[in-house]
Amino acid sequence: MVRNPSANRAQFRPTDHPNESFLLTTVVGSYPKPKWLNRADELVEDPDSKFDDDDLEEAHDDACRLITHEHERAGLDTVVDGEMRRNEMVEFFAERIDGYEFNGPVKVWGHNYFDKPSVVEDVAYDEPWLVDEFAFTTNVAERPVKVPITGPYTLGFWAFNEAYPSTEELVYDLADLVNEEIEKLVEAGARYVQIDEPALATTPEDHAIVGEALDRIVSGIDEDVRIGLHVCYGDYSRIYPEINDFPIDEFDVELCNGDYEQIPTFQDPEFEPDLALGVVDAHTAEIEPVEEIKANIRQGLRVVPPEKLTISPDCGLKLLPREIAYGKTENMVEAARQVEAEIDAGEIDLDAPLADD
Amino acid sequence: MTERVAATPGIYPLPDWAKGTLSDLKGHQKGDLLSGDEGGEIAETYDEVRAEFVDDQLEAGLDRVVEGEGRWDDMIAHPLTVHESVETGGIVRYYDNNNFYRDPRVVDDLGFSGDVAAELEAAADLIAGTDAGDAPLAATLPGPYSLATLATDEHYGDEGAFQAAIADFLAGELEAFPAHETLFLLEPSLVTNPPADGTEERATDAIATVAGATDADVVVQTYWGALDEKLYAHLVDEADADALGLDLVAGDRDDTVYNVQEYGATDSVSLGLVDGQNTLIEEPETVAERVEWFEGQVPAADFETTYLTPNTELFYLPENKYRAKLNALAAATEVLE
User: Fold this and answer.
1) Largest CA distance in chain A
2) Alpha-carbon gap: B224 to the closest alpha carbon of chain A (Å)
3) I need a surface site. Which of A89, A210, B30, B148 has the fewest CB within 10 A?
4) What chain A residue is nearest to B95 in terms of C-alpha separation?
């Protein structure tokens, strides 16, 4: 059962928004790190260097400030800090949760590895994961801040399970911890939280586990807090229409990468949460022109009306060159504003949004 | 009296030092991966990796020594991705894992390559230079059915012809191998993506083509659950395998036992007993109990050899845990003695 997206969407509309229509613009979360930050991460590990943990913290603060402002300069309605403090989406959280241990990197593909942790005892909440990050970003941002959190299904299934009878049980315990973290974030002022579950794309038959985990995640969270779910790269027909039963406000998808071939999947039955549509490709290093992105946005209007459409990149942009990531983001916002104006002017037939009027 | 043999179906994780070194030498991108004609520092690094793999196995006391396939950037698709008649396409998912490999697109006749044979020659030389110079070598190859399903045919034009061509290619490679005691043919697709009804024989013919090209004992290693009953029966009768490899870790092991009880078994059997995808290290006694449990479930079967193996390749694991799994398998055979 979808939460109540219409109850929490308006708070992200800027007071000086230029159009009557409003397509909420956002990003999935990760963004390329400035090269000097990667160098700083290495320096702090170098025993011969005078660069210490305090220096690294300052570097992270500077990078977060920089990327938050870069998002604002691109015109996004909601911003993040580009996950500058995070190394990898499972590792970052596993380091902060009791019950995990690390044994070394494992292969993903080619010479790309990640430090896949092992769950060796029951997981437990230790220190806050993101509250300090959120407080810092909110303090430097002039726009509302979205908080991406790796979801419990991914935190469970992208780890080695040594402790639980089944990984499903681990996921539910992790979901309770995510709920605890979101409560703290809400207390700190967060109003927009995105649960990242890329692992669901690899095992879509587990959508019921994700649904149960989401029930636990949103337990006690007010409807004025917007809860999004991001699932990238997969066959969405294997989890739709089941996601209409998820307790979320927004479902964020990667469809630009597949030329929107899967859009018809979401047309019947009616799509219930707000749709956060990827309109620029996170896996190509070319900046899509505004006109092309506008056509992509129209694909989203085939599924939901403008008041339920959120505009975002397909996925995190962290693997792209920074100037490309910025160019995509800037064009994406410009395209959204132009489409809004065209809707206001009646130039887009919302019953047939791909038609040229 | 059943002989218990501790062995592994190849593909080990690179040591951590080599992960960094090779990443620096080769790069991270699709175009930077192995093409089969590497030389210089890259080749020397792989030589060091191979020597470490051989030492790991000898130290653990395994009964078969594999080369370890450190060069196999694309996991079991490797023999194709380095072939001159193959172009590599996009990055595609390796089964339902969070692992990816380059899509091998076969664009011309699959002639002889010799890539895997050269690896095995190097491993045989290494073994010969150790105190355990007579340690038996085991070779690892993808099974023809799985390799065909993991690849894209842009040349042969017909599924059956493609599978047969892959089988002929693998058989040709095998003929160039140095002496080896055992051949592991890795066939996970038989479980995850089984042949369509009525095409089982085509798959078993392909496997038999490869098995017929070596004098070694051939283990057709399946994993990620139980085989379909009918396919299992075909494999036992037609694949020309000395042993079928059966996964007792993933999926429902009772289904696997049922297959053996109902349709008989190959003369030998290979059991996936330790979890190749979990860092939890099984005690040798636990592994031994699993062997005895399985053998007890099928009392009519009197296996010539029972291979004690991980249920999958071990490249999924961090370096320290991979070594611990080798030790657990080798120690389990001692428990059973």
Assistant:
1) 66
2) 14
3) B30
4) A202
Give the phi and the psi of residue B94 in degrees, each rounded to 5: -90, 100
Tell me how far apart the alpha carbons of residues B336 and B291 are, in angstroms, rounded to a whole number.
9
Query: Residue A76: which residues within 8 A CB-CB, separation 6 or more?
Result: A25, A26, A27, A143, A329, A333
Q: How many CB atoms lie within 10 A of CB A230?
A: 26
- Residues of A with Cβ-Cβ distance to B96 under 8 angstroms: 202-203
Report CB contact under 8 Å: B32, A111. yes
* 337 residues of chain B, pLDDT tens digit each: 899 999 999 899 999 999 999 999 998 888 889 999 999 999 999 999 999 999 999 999 999 999 999 999 999 999 999 999 999 998 898 998 889 999 999 999 999 999 999 999 999 999 999 998 899 999 999 999 999 999 999 999 999 999 999 999 999 999 999 999 999 999 999 999 999 999 999 999 999 999 999 999 999 999 999 999 999 999 999 999 999 999 999 989 999 999 999 999 999 999 999 999 999 999 999 999 999 999 999 877 789 999 999 999 999 999 999 999 999 999 999 999 8
Establish if A160 touches chain B: CB-CB under 8 angstroms: yes
Kindly state the helix (H) or strand (E) to which residue B21 belongs, with its residue range: helix B16-26
Task: Flag whether residue A284 sits within 8 Å of chain B, measured between CB atoms.
Answer: no
Tell me, what's the pLDDT at B105?
98
What ranges in chain A are assigned the alpha helix state H?
A: 5-8, 35-43, 53-74, 91-94, 131-140, 152-157, 167-187, 207-217, 290-301, 322-344
**How many other C-beta atoms are found inside a 10 Å radius of the C-beta of residue A17?**
13
- Predicted confidence band at A233 (pLDDT cuts at 50, 70, 90)? confident
Are the C-beta atoms of residues B141 and B116 closer than 8 Å to each other? yes
Which amino acid is it at B145?
Y
Task: Identify all chain A residues contacting B93, using CB atoms and an 8 Å cutoff.
Answer: 202
In DSSP terms, A117 is beta-bridged to A102
Q: How many helices (H) and strands (E) does chain B have?
A: 12, 10
CB within 8 Å: A109 and B99:
yes
Q: Residue A105 and residue B13: Cα distance in Å, rounded? A: 10
Q: What own/partner pairs with CB < 8 Å and gap ≥ 24 does B156-163 have?
A: B156/B106, B160/B199, B160/B202, B162/B106, B163/B202, B163/B203, B163/B206
When the pLDDT of each residue in chain A is averaged and rounded to a whole number, the result is: 96
Q: Which of B16, B29, B99 sits opposite A108 (nearest CB)?
A: B99
